[in-house]
User: Which sequence fits this backbone?
C-alpha cells in the first residue's frame, strides 16, 4: 500500500495502436487516436501523422477501378473504370476505350499480356488498343465422327461462346454430315473445311439448321491416312444464359493458373473456373456448388495451397469451403471442394493478408488458422477496433488493400489499419494492433503500384503521398491512468511531465476524471524533449492528449504523480 507522498512514474512509449474496447487500456495504446500510425520506413519509432491525399487524375464520375497496364516497358497505360465508361490514360491524353460498364467496383488481371476486366455485367479483354468482350475459345466438342454421327466427345461446351467445332472422317460417298447438336444458330457464318480448304455455302454445301445437318454438293473424299479427320465444321448453338453465368460474376481469383469466378446473383453459391491457362474457356461442367444451401459466396481467397471460399452465414453452418488441386485420371486437374468445420459466415469480404486468410464476419475480422491437412479453427483479429468498425453503416461494403505491411479496411471516408508487424496474444490466439484514420474523400476502389497507394473516389484518383505543406487533424490520447491506485487521490509533479516529440505545432492537453480537456501549452517547431507543466490536484485518473493540424510525431511521454489520500465517497 502506498503511503501519502509516494511518487509514482508512468511511461507512455513503444506505441502499438488504438484500443476502442472501453476497458483497461495498456499504456502503449490509445483509447482515442486519429490519423496517426507507425511508419516503419522511419524505423517505426513512435507514432506519426499519416500522409494526406493529393489529386493524381480528375474524373467526371465515380472511379470504380484502375489498373496500370504495362508490357515489357514497351508501353504503359493507366486504365480507369469511370462511371459506365472505360478509359486509357497515356501521359495527359485520356481516351475512351469502352462504354457500357457496370457502375460498381471492377477487377483486373493480365494473362499473356492481355488485360482482362470483370465488373459484374461484362467480361472484357484489352490488348492495348482495342477493348472487346472476351472472345471465347472455340472448343472441338466431337472428333473422329462419321458422316452419320458418333465419334468421340472431346472438349466441353464453352460458357463464353456458343461456337463449337466437329471433326469427321470422310468416307468418300456420304454427302450428309450430322453435327453433335440440333437447332443450331442460322445467323452464324458457318466455317466448313475439307482437307483444310474452306468451302463455300450454297455452292459447296447447304445447311439444315433445325436438324443440325450439312449436305455437301460433292461427297468429301476419304482421307489419305486411314482414320484421320479431314472434315472440320465450325457452327454456333447459343444457349440462353450461358455467357451470363460468367458475365454476372462480381468476384474473381486467379489460382493454380486458372481464373475462378463467383458472385453471380442467379447462382449465389456456385464457383466457376476457367480451363488451365485459358481465361477465355470456361467449361459448362467446370463449376462447384458450395454447400447445399443458397447462401451467397462473399469471398474467394487463394492461400495455404488452396482456394478458400467463404459464404454468408447460413442455417446449415457450412460457410467455409476449400479447394485443393487434385489430378484425376480421366478429367485431369480438378478442384473438389471440402467444407471446414467453421460455422461463422462472412458478411463483407476477405483477403490473403500476408499469408493470413482473413474475412469479415458480423463480429469483425476472423482468421482461418490450421492448414488443409489439419482441423481449421477461427481466430478473432480485430477486438481493438470492433466497437467502431462494426458500427459503420457500410461495413458490408468495405474495400480491402494491403499496403506498407498494413491491411487497410476502407469504409467510405474511414480507414482501419491492421498492422502485420504489430501482433499480441489475446488469451489463446494472436490479434493485430490497429490504427484509425479519416480521409477527406470516400474511397470507391484502390490500387498499389511501386509502393504508392492510389485511391479511386467520386471525383478522381488520389495518391496517399502528400507529406509537406498539409493541414490534417491528428492526435494521440493516453489511457485514463489511475497510476495503480484507483482508490486514492493524486497530485501531479509539475516538473514531472516530459515528452519527446517533433512537429511544427503541437498542443498538449490534460484531462482529469470526468472534466474536459484543458490545454497546457502549444509548442512550435519542436524537436526533442519538452517539459509540459501539468499542475493537477486531487484527481483519480488522468489523460494527456497530443494533437495538431500539422504533421507531428510522438515518441514517448513520462508523467510523475504523488499518491495522496483516499478518494472521498
Assistant:
Amino acid at each position: 500500500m502506498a503511503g501519502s507522498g509516494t511518487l509514482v512514474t508512468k511511461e507512455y512509449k513503444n506505441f502499438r495502436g488504438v484500443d476502442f474496447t472501453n476497458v483497461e487500456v495498456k499504456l502503449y495504446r490509445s483509447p482515442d487516436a486519429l490519423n496517426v500510425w507507425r511508419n516503419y520506413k522511419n524505423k517505426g519509432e513512435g507514432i506519426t501523422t499519416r500522409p494526406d491525399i493529393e489529386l493524381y487524375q480528375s474524373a467526371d464520375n465515380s472511379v470504380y477501378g484502375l489498373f496500370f497496364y504495362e508490357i515489357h516497358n514497351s508501353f504503359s497505360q493507366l486504365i480507369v473504370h469511370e462511371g459506365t465508361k472505360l478509359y486509357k490514360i497515356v501521359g495527359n491524353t485520356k481516351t475512351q476505350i469502352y462504354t457500357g460498364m457496370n457502375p460498381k467496383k471492377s477487377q483486373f488481371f493480365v494473362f499473356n499480356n492481355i488485360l482482362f476486366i470483370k465488373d459484374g455485367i461484362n467480361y472484357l479483354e484489352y490488348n492495348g488498343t482495342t477493348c472487346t468482350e472476351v472472345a471465347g475459345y472455340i472448343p472441338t466438342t466431337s472428333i473422329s465422327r462419321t458422316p452419320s454421327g458418333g465419334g468421340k466427345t472431346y472438349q466441353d461446351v464453352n460458357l463464353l461462346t456458343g461456337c463449337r467445332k466437329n471433326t469427321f472422317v470422310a468416307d468418300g460417298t456420304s454427302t450428309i454430315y450430322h453435327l453433335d447438336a440440333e437447332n443450331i444458330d442460322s445467323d452464324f457464318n458457318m466455317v466448313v473445311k475439307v482437307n483444310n480448304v474452306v468451302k463455300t455455302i450454297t455452292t459447296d454445301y447447304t445447311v439444315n439448321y433445325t436438324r443440325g445437318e450439312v449436305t455437301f454438293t460433292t461427297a468429301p473424299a476419304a482421307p489419305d491416312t486411314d482414320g484421320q479427320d479431314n472434315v472440320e465444321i465450325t457452327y454456333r448453338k447459343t444457349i440462353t444464359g450461358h455467357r451470363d453465368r460468367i458475365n454476372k460474376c462480381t468476384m474473381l481469383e486467379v489460382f493454380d493458373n486458372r481464373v475462378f469466378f463467383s458472385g453471380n446473383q442467379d447462382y449465389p453459391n456456385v464457383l466457376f473456373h476457367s480451363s488451365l491457362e485459358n481465361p477465355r474457356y470456361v467449361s459448362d461442367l467446370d463449376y462447384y456448388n458450395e454447400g447445399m444451401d443458397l447462401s451467397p459466396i462473399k469471398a474467394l481467397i487463394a492461400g495455404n495451397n488452396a482456394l478458400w471460399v467463404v459464404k454468408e452465414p447460413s442455417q446449415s453452418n457450412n460457410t467455409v469451403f476449400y479447394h485443393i488441386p487434385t489430378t484425376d485420371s480421366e478429367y485431369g486437374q480438378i478442384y473438389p471442394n471440402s467444407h471446414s468445420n467453421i460455422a461463422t459466415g462472412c458478411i463483407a469480404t476477405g483477403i490473403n493478408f500476408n499469408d493470413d486468410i482473413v474475412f469479415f464476419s458480423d463480429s469483425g475480422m476472423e482468421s482461418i488458422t490450421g492448414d488443409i491437412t489439419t482441423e481449421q479453427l477461427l481466430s478473432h483479429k480485430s477486438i481493438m477496433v470492433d466497437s467502431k468498425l462494426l458500427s459503420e453503416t457500410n461495413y458490408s461494403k468495405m474495400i480491402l488493400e494491403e499496403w506498407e505491411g498494413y491491411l487497410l479496411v476502407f469504409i467510405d471516408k474511414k480507414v482501419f489499419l491492421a498492422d502485420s508487424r504489430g501482433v499480441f496474444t489475446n488469451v489463446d490466439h494472436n490479434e493485430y494492433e490497429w490504427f484509425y484514420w479519416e480521409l477527406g474523400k470516400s474511397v470507391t476502389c484502390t490500387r498499389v503500384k511501386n509502393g504508392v497507394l492510389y485511391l479511386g473516389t467520386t471525383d478522381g484518383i488520389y495518391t496517399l503521398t502528400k507529406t509537406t505543406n498539409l493541414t490534417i487533424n491528428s492526435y494521440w490520447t493516453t489511457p485514463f491512468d489511475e497510476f495503480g491506485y484507483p482508490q486514492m487521490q493524486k497530485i501531479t509533479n509539475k516538473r514531472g511531465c516530459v515528452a519527446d516529440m517533433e512537429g511544427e505545432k503541437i498542443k498538449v492537453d490534460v484531462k482529469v476524471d470526468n472534466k474536459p480537456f484543458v490545454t497546457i501549452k502549444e509548442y512550435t517547431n519542436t524537436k526533442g524533449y519538452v517539459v509540459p507543466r501539468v499542475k493537477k490536484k486531487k484527481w483519480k485518473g488522468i489523460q494527456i492528449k497530443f494533437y495538431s493540424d500539422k504533421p507531428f510525431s510522438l515518441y514517448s511521454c513520462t508523467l510523475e504523480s504523488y499518491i495522496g489520500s483516499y478518494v472521498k465517497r
